[in-house]
Specification:
This protein has 495 residues and is mainly beta. The protein has three domains: 7-40, no CATH class; 54-334, Neuraminidase (6 Propeller), CATH 2.120.10; 367-493, Nuclear Transport Factor 2, Chain: A. Helices cover 11% and strands 34% of the residues. The protein contains five helices and 32 strands. It starts with 6 loop residues before the first helix and ends with a strand.
Length: 495
């Protein structure tokens, strides 16, 4: 039962004013205060959840991205950051991993960047952050061995601790991202989420303990993620050993707990699997008894980071999301919670912009027009399966990772095979032309896919898409060889 007290009690026992008329009342209140403190150490206040989303600040990055192959990425601040955290003093640290080299950004809630700290010779790859009163903890999974690094707010090094190898091992092998989440304990311990569960890495004094935890313990409650249930196809979240009663379709990830309040309430990151649209990413709030207090819908964005690194728990129990937008701006959003979450709107259908048609070859054409039309003819014939015609316009070589033409194989058969691996698409647009030599032109070329959208190629082979934004203007040289214009570059290849 919830007990009502006078305002002076809610303000704290020490605030009572006692005079001759209120001695009895003061004694009664003092006894209640002493009892509450002896039971809990503090008087928990119920968390007040915000009722609507609020954009706290936006970092504008107006420098455009041309989409040209080979151009350096602009110096955008925070766009596609791997992780961020909110400090007890209510400022923001962002691990700006899209920039090269990686850096830390310390930002006020007004959006002012207090400082940029280069991580050269300090941190190889900042995978997660946790802020304390004393400074900033950085999880570096790029170093060997992986470590946690304690920095002062000016970026100077306080301490560095290697993560024991066994914490990040799976079947005897070290997994590079086998440690992925940092959490501050109730008494300033440092917890580390790993593929082998949670560990208390450092105790409250900063000493290395690397102690395996059965669960996360905060304010007298135990929180944990259970094992996969083959019958239900779900992973349960448990509080004090009791599974939460989650709605159908809710998926709880292995690192779903975002933060905990002194009243035992907590925020949980989940997503809902639906057939009509992509998964619906949510944050749900619960009381320690399992009562759902409200739900928030995460904002759609380009980068949903692993292990909920795009979400952070702040003072007062607020949950924040760092959103990277298409215009390369970065917003910090405080999520609002609803008892009944409004229905999600259908995602907008992107209508591709009509692509510029190019004129055909004509009598009296200039050298540039002849070179351009050789490029057009090569890709038009390839995309239409007219391989013998296409080869007449090709003067380059095929990369070594594709096989050479076999004995007895016709030109058409060979290029048909190549186009199973290469982007043999028609040209949609030529955005720019350069002439490095009298007999050669460079055409920046845009290709169109079967659905009418332009071909874009992003980061390769697990690379960070924020560090290497997609390109769609590809440089194609066309050279005059023995009186005929020839394309010197094969169709594009992506692994």
């Amino acid at each position: 039962m919830k007990q009502a007290f006078p305002p002076s009690f809610a303000d704290g026992c020490s605030s009572m004013i006692v005079d001759g008329h209120f001695i009895a009342w003061a004694i009664a209140i003092a006894l209640v205060c002493a009892w509450a403190a002896s039971c809990t150490g503090t008087i928990p206040a119920a968390v007040q959840l915000p009722q609507s989303d609020e954009v706290v600040f936006t970092i504008q990055n107006p420098e455009p991205w041309s989409g040209k192959e080979g151009e350096p990425r602009p110096n955008w601040h925070g766009w596609g950051a791997e992780t961020f955290t909110i400090t007890p003093e209510v400022s923001v640290w962002i691990a700006d991993t899209g920039a090269s080299p990686a850096r830390l950004l310390h930002v006020t809630f007004d959006g002012d960047i207090l400082r940029e700290i280069s991580l050269v010779d300090l941190v190889v790859f900042p995978y997660d952050l946790a802020a304390s009163q004393e400074g900033l903890w950085v999880l570096d999974i790029g170093s060997d061995p992986a470590k946690v690094i304690h920095l002062r707010t000016d970026g100077s090094l306080m301490s560095s601790v290697d993560i024991p190898r066994e914490i990040m091992e799976y079947e005897g092998e070290v997994v590079n991202n086998g440690a992925f989440n940092l959490l501050m304990g109730e008494k300033n311990e440092l917890y580390l989420g790993t593929l082998n569960g949670f560990y208390e890495l450092l105790d409250a004094s900063g000493g290395l303990v690397a102690r395996s935890l059965e669960n996360l313990s905060y304010y007298g409650h135990a929180y944990e993620v259970g094992h996969y249930n083959q019958m239900t196809g779900t992973i349960p979240a448990l509080v004090d050993g009791v599974p939460l009663d989650t709605p159908p379709g809710f998926v709880v990830g292995p690192e779903a707990f975002l933060g905990f309040n002194s009243d035992g309430s907590f925020a949980l990151a989940v997503y809902v699997q639906v057939e009509e649209y992509p998964s619906d990413y949510l944050v749900t709030y619960y009381s320690p008894s399992g009562e759902q207090l409200g739900s928030a819908r995460q904002w759609p964005q380009m980068f949903y980071r692993d292990f909920n690194h795009h979400l952070a728990f702040g003072p007062g129990g607020a949950v924040y999301q760092l959103v990277s937008d298409l215009d390369h701006s970065v917003s910090l959003v405080r999520l609002g919670f609803f008892a009944d979450l409004p229905a999600r709107n259908a995602p907008p259908v992107i209508q591709p912009t009509p692509l510029t048609a190019l004129p055909a070859s004509s009598e009296g054409a200039t050298a540039e027009e002849l070179a351009r039309n050789a490029l057009l003819a090569f890709f038009t014939d390839l995309s239409a399966g007219r391989y013998e015609n296409a080869v007449r316009y090709f003067g380059g070589t095929v990369d070594g990772y594709l096989r050479e033409r076999m004995t007895g194989e016709t030109v058409a058969e060979y290029w048909q095979h190549l186009c199973e691996y290469l982007w043999c698409l028609p040209v949609a647009e030529i955005t720019e032309v350069e002439q490095p030599f009298a007999d050669e032109y460079i055409f920046y070329t845009v290709f169109v896919q079967g659905d009418g959208t332009r071909l874009e190629i992003g980061a390769c082979c697990g690379g960070d898409p924020a560090a290497t934004p997609p390109v769609w203007q590809f440089a194609y040289g066309v050279r005059l060889i023995e009186g005929e214009w020839k394309v010197m570059r094969a169709p594009l290849f992506t692994p």
